[in-house]
Amino acid sequence: MLKVGLIAGISLTIALAGAEGIATIPVSAQVLYDGSRNTSFKTQGWVTKTPQGTIENIFGGGTTLNTTSSNTLQAGYSLFRPLNRTQGYTLSVDLQLLSESHASLNRAGFSIIALSSDRRGIELGFWRNDPTVRDHIWAQNDGATRATRFTRGEGTSFNPSNSLVRYELSIKDNRYGLFANRNLVLAGNLRDYSIEGIAPYTLSNVIFLGDNTTSASGSVRITRVALSNTTIPFTTPTSRSTRLSAASATSVPEPMTIVGSGFAIAMGGLFAKKRQSRGRK
Predict the structure, then answer these.
(1) For residue 194, which phi and psi values (nearest 5 degrees)?
(2) Do the Cβ atoms of 236 and 244 come closer than 8 Å?
(3) What contacts 24+ positions apart, CB below 8 Å, involve 17-24?
(4) CA-to-CA distance for 63 and 56, rounded, in angstroms?
(5) Domains, in order of start, for the chain
(6) Pairing relation of β-strands 30-34 and 47-49?
(7) What is the Cα–Cα distance from 25 to 219, expressed in whole angstroms?
(8) Alpha carbons 34 and 262: distance in angstroms, whole number
(9) Which residues contact 187 (CB under 8 A, 6 or more apart)?
(10) Do residues 116 and 104 lie in contact, with contact meaning Cβ atoms separated by under 8 Å?
C-alpha cells in the first residue's frame, strides 16, 4: 500500500489489487466504464464524489451526472491507470453535454483531466455555449503565476451538446489531440499544473471526469470510457491557439464489455481545488 502525502493534510491511499502492476497495460483498449451494465462508476471501480444536491441517474446504458442545482457543487469520477506519454496513450469517452453554465470564461461545468506518469497532461473544459466566445471545448492553461494558471487556452467550436459523441484524447510526448468521432477538433501542448500544489494536479497517472469547480455547473451523459496505449496520429498546429474546424457529430456505437478490475482506490481531497471565478479575459 502506497501513501502519498499532499499539502493541507490531503492524503491519497492507493491499494494495488491483485497482480495488476502500475507498469503494465493491455495493448488493446481497456474499457474502464461500461454503461451497458447499467451500474454506477463506483461499482465499476471508480472513486466517486456525488455530494448532496448532485443528481446521478444510471439508466439506459449510461450514467447522467448533474450538478446544475448549484455552482458550488463539485462532483465526478476519478481513476488511476498507467499513462505513459512517451509511449503514448488514448483516453476514449462517449458523452453528451446536456446542459452547462459558468460564471467565468475560465471555468466549465464539465471537465476531462488526464495526467501522465510525470504529471504532465491536459484539462479540457466543455461548454454548451457562451454569448461572447465561440469555443465549446477548450484547454486550461498552466503557468508560473496564479494570474495565468487555469485560464482559458486553445479551443474548438465543436459543440458537445448536439449528440452523443465518442471523444478520443490522444497523448504523445508533449502534445495532445482531441478527436470527435475520429475527426481531429483540437490539438496543443501538454501542461504542467503541479505548481498549483493540490490534488489531482500533484498526482500521476490519474483520470478525472466531472465538475471540479465552484464557478460552473453542468449535466453530462456518459456511456463508455476506455484506455489504450496506442495513439491516433494527428497534425501538429503551428500555434497553441490554433482552432481546428469542427467535425459533424454522429451517434457512437453501443458500449463494449468491461475488461479487467483495475485498482482499488481510496482518495481524499481530489475536489479540494476551490478555484475562484476570475474576471473576463
Answers:
(1) -65, -20
(2) no
(3) 17/261, 17/262, 17/263, 17/264, 18/261, 20/260, 20/261, 20/262, 20/263, 22/82, 22/205, 23/82, 24/82
(4) 7
(5) 2-267 (2.60.120.200)
(6) unpaired
(7) 31
(8) 14
(9) 175, 176, 177, 178, 234, 235, 236, 237, 242, 244
(10) no
Q: Are residues 38 and 59 in contact, defined by beta-carbon separation less than 8 angstroms?
A: yes
Q: Please enumerate in sequence order all residues whose Cβ is within 8 A of that of 230, keeping only pairs 6 or more positions apart, or say none.
A: 27, 88, 89, 90
Q: Which residues of 148-162 are buried (b: 16+ CB within 10 A; e: fewer)?
A: ebbbbbbbbebbbbe
Minimal CA–CA distance to 116: which of 170, 167, 152? 170
Q: Indicate if the alpha-carbon torsion angle 180, 71, 62, 172 is positive or negative.
A: positive
Q: What is the DSSP letter of 43?
A: T
Q: Rounded to two decimals, what is the model's pTM?
A: 0.79
Within 8 A by CB and 6+ apart from 8, the residues are 198, 269, 272
| 91-133 per-position pLDDT tens digit | 999 999 999 999 999 999 999 999 999 999 999 999 999 999 9
CA angle 164, 170, 175 (to 5 degrees): 135
Per-residue pLDDT tens over the stretch 29-83: 899 999 999 999 999 999 999 999 999 999 999 999 999 999 999 999 999 999 9
